[in-house]
Fold:
Amino acid sequence: MDIFGNMDWLAGIILTVTTGSVVSAVGYWILKVKIIVKKQVATEKGVQALLRDRIIQIFNDYSAKKYMPIYARENVESLFRDVL
Structure:
């Protein structure tokens, strides 16, 4: 007889606990990544909305003035590239 006796049951318990822990940890990290991605997309959409609003404000301002200096045009072009 073995010094430790029949330890198959202990190996089964260890395997079950280890597998459960790994599955739980992977599930947790997948959920965490989904939350981070969702926040990132929301932030990007918010910034895009702010840029569009600023472009519209600049357009309305210079449309009323009937002219647009070159620096303002370059600024709007830069903002427009960022929106895309």
Remarks:
- Residues 28-83 form one domain.
- The radius of gyration is 30 Å.
